[in-house]
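Researcher: Quick sanity check before group meeting.
Model: Go ahead. Protein one:
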Amino acid sequence: MSSKKPQLRRCTECASAGHNRATCPLESRAHTPISASPLKFFVHHVQNEPAASPHIVNLKNNTSPIWQDIESKTPTTMTESTFHSYHKLPSTDETKQAILPSPSIKTATKNDPVPEKFNSYLTTPPTPVKQKIKTETDKTWLDLFHNLFPLKPTLLSLAIITLILVVPGQARSYFENLQETKDVITENSTAGFLALQQSTVALKNADIDTAAGATALAGDRFNAALSTIEEKHHILQTIITAIPILHGELESREKILLAGQEITIGNSYLLNALQNAKRDTNKTFSNNLIELSAALASALPNYDAAVNNLQAVDVGILPYQYQAQFTDFRNLFTAVVTDFKNVNDLSNTLQEVFGGKGFRRYLLVFQNPSEIRATGGFIGSFAILDVNNGKIDKLDIPAGGSYDLQGQLPDYLIPPLPLTLTNKRWEFQDANWFPDFPASAKKMLWFFHRSRGITADGVISINATVLQRLLSIIGPVVDLKRDLILTAETALPTIQTIVESSTEKLNHKPKQILSDLTPQLLQSLTSTPPTAILPLLISLEDALGQKEIQAYFTDQETESNITSFGWSGALAQAQPNEDYLFVVNTNIQGEKSDAKIKQTISHQAVIANDGSVVDTVIITREHTGTPTEPLYGTPNLDYLRLYVPAGSTLISASGFTWPDEKNFRAPESWYKTDTDLQNIETEVTIDNSSGTRITNEFGKTAFGNWVATAPGTTSQVVFSYRLSFLLPETNQSTISMFDRILAPFGKSFKKYSLLVQKQSGITSDFESQILLPPNWQPKWTSDDQILIADNGVRVTKLPLTNDRLWITIIQPTKK
């Protein structure tokens, strides 16, 4: 007998070894073809998605000046909730133009024309990957082996013959042992992961008792599964040695179990720290924070090891119906580990800011997103916080709010031009004009120093929404003076009403309620039960990620750390030849109407053959308020700025409404020009056709104009501009992070990347599409939310909760 191993064919349908297209399980379920490339380009969807989900995109020619409809072809109802389809779009020869995609999606009907290769897919439900075992008597060793490793009949027969030749007379026994081993491992690992999920959720919610029991159970189950593998190792190794097609499957299954064990150990570190803190009630908040940081530092290596093990698992070895679930779990846990790392960074930074550096004085500014400003909201009030070695020495909150500094400011500065609609003099309450938070923070410190004659070591801005987060963790706060109970649900509207319409405002103390409540909130915060520290840190880290909290420190090392964590609120510096978009709203004389505004940002990039790019951006603002509503029913007047790559050329802009010129207030002739403003806003020009103001700021080009939206109406403005750079032909060796991904693409491809920044205080819906030149196709995308078509890609509409980066690799289909 020849010792040469059998040559295994690779399927042209799914790229897996061990079968061909005729016997491919995917083909049998009427899937459309999968590329034989190691990379699989597909669209992800499940049964419970709405029918309008655009998983097949036709980016086609349309000369309409509004977004064109996107045709969607939706499969028939799936029988498995975790079913995923893999398909690519039919090609199109239509010429692409600078068109705008439609926000509405047309759902396919049975009468719609369907490309021939999709007919069977749309009309035939998928068949199961494997049939359920009907009775115990049906469980032959052949059925059991097929159930464990679903192979095609020809390869299965080859495997059986091979095993019998290697271990004659023992094949049935080996397979029975294999099935028994698999059953034990499956039972223990399933129970382990269920307990692990319960443990992790309980830890995040500070339920120590539940976390303790679930963590112990998970550890026992994973240990039992690993022990079973160790005991049966010689059986499995014999089978794997005899059957080459099983190579790597045992390793992948072991990786899954090892990952579960590592996560269990990591959770145990956190659990022990919380249990110790719960027992010792005499420890300070700072001490509990230090111990939790130490526990996180101990757990993170185990979490990292778990991530590495999960990434090493070949998902193809799992039963088909569990593959999507495993992939979702792997992605979710990887995100959880990232969150824990950020929380660890946050706890260390809090110790650094409030702990070990002696006396520090911070300027706290409270921003109201209902009146949106560049860094998150109008500065209605502020506080001076003095801390020393982790303890609060003094907290001063002026009852008059930010206007208390007006009479103390000796300087008369000309404000940024749009702000002259409300004030001819630039003052502290309008200091957050720049969307780059460090620049605005420096201006706040300047105004404060010039008004009070004292300096501060940093600025921490806190949006009103943070109060909701805190109250959801520490519980309600009682205001005895006003006979109020403030909960996470009632605090903001109650405080807003008191600030705007109570007798305290008539006495020129509109922010008195904040002066009264803030010390109580800080006391509750520093007295947070040890078990609630982790949920508190997780919530604060999320607030920092969504820019509800931003910080600037004069100490360069601290500021550098804050910036590296992405918590500084600075304008990002895009990479060379990278598209960039930052939409910045500024409410001027629109009262609190932003609480009723829904905003959608629609972006399109059209790439030409020479690599030039023309972007079109539509901003849609809907005012959901009514004219009779106090504060919120006011017409919304927004000075809107669009920050784009430096050197971009405005092609056209439309949809704007200018305030009446007579409402602007001209500064006195002797007012001084502010040096910071002059240095930041350079090369100011005006587009004659639209009145759009064009400036260079922070290494970007900015387009600014006015948008007015009355209650019950919708406004829409459009910017079209050409980027200053060409997408170059890229050699994969110049992009080290993509070396492995780009290997199949050879030497010729282009990379289009889009960095979109979120403005603090507003969550807009965002969508984008990138249209490619003829004979170019997308080959890889960085995000599973990007839908791929033959002539472009589309980012489906999603809430812009934080800064996002999307990357698409494109390659010519022919030279």
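Researcher: Fine. The other one?
Model: Protein two, sequence then structure:
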Amino acid sequence: MTSGTAHTLYNLGYQTVDLVLSADGIYVDNRPMNQTKLVVHKGLNNQLNFHVRNRDRVKQNLSTKTLYATVINPNTSKRVLFKPLTLVSGGTTGEARLDLVTGDIQDLSPGLYQIAISESADSGATQSPLYANQNDRIVTDLEIKSSLEYEPSPTQTASVFTQTASVGVDGIDSFATSSLYGNQDKNYRHSGHTIALYMTDFVGTVKIQGSALASAPTQDTDWYDINAQGDIGNPAIPYTTATSGVDPFNFTINTNWIRVIFDQTSGTLDKVLLRN
């Protein structure tokens, strides 16, 4: 989802004063050209379009120039973002675009900022201001909103394992984690999950299981196997030699609950981390 805004800038060149002759006398023409502030939203990709014109409002050729955006926190006078713009149609139409991905403003607090656009013909070695209006104002108000911002679900940790009622491979007892949340908080269509197994000299077999029940399952029969190795392989993940470290798996499934169950021959399965 992208939020787009268009904005006009002026290449005023040398500072001059426009005098307008009227029946009431002569007055200075310094009327503002942009009446509204720019608004971007955290949690989304935002696009700001800028049209660069001269004092006669004629669009300027930008093909030999590079435009840069500088965002400043007015409370601290510190620059919080500096990024080049993308020229639209190679700059021949006088239009440039500032693409803000979610990471560009992720760490910025919601509130009012100021944005200034500069032009350069030597890749930023020297820069000249572009004016936000014909009163020599080079900054434009920029508001960062967080109405659509979301916080990722925290990583779930399981380090206590309970013996199950089922008997595992070759008569070895099985142990399982508690019920971990699946897609209950963020039921995205992709339903992606990442699970990490932390092991110390572990030898045995591990399975990842899911349950679609509305409440946490209480019976082993409430669970079904998830093939974290892909649709072709066996759902059971074998560790035939002593394995230490972290073994991660990515899998896609829309389920309310997830757990890990394992048969342990030797070594230890220390903990399980789940992101979804």
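Researcher: One line on it for the slide.
Model: The radius of gyration is 30 Å.
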